[in-house]
Every structure is written in C-alpha cells, then in structure tokens.
Amino acid sequence: MNAFENCPDLDDFMQGLIKRNPHETEFHQAVREVAESVVPYVLEHRQYKDAQILERMTEPDRIVIFRVTDLPPRFSPHSTVDRGWFAEAGVAERSPALQ
Known about the structure:
The chain is an alpha+beta fold. It has one domain (8-91). It has four helices and two strands.
C-alpha cells in the first residue's frame, strides 16, 4: 500500500482530472498509479507543484477531431457520418519555472 494513496493533494488532483475526463476510467486508473509514485517527489520539490507539472502531464498537447463519411452502397440513399479523434501528447515544452 502506498502512503500517498490517501494524500489530499493526490485526491484533489484526481478529482480535477476526473472532472475534465469524466468517461475515461482506464485513463483515471493509469494516472492514479503514476501519480502515486510522482506526488511524493512533487511535494518535496515545490517548483514542480508551482509549475503544475502533474496537470500538464495529463493534458494532451493537441486533439484532432475529424469526420469519417461512409459512402453508401450503390443505389442506397443512406450514408453514415462518424466522428474520429486522436490525442497527441509528449511534445516537449520547457517551463520557465523548471529551468
């Protein structure tokens, strides 16, 4: 059992994450597992907390949403339109607070 599982800072962080991503339960679980090991370090080094490093790590750099049109078979009056998306993360950015 991790000593930081019931940490108020971790709980506040997770509540904000769940509010921003309400239907992503696997994402919530993965972030909690990583955050439990990162939070102690962040709490010891104030510059990371001030720079909101955890919040920045869990926000995608870019989200692209696009339309996918399924053309109907010949002589069919119906076509379908679906929405596709992908999120891009990991674009390095240096924060002035971390330099």
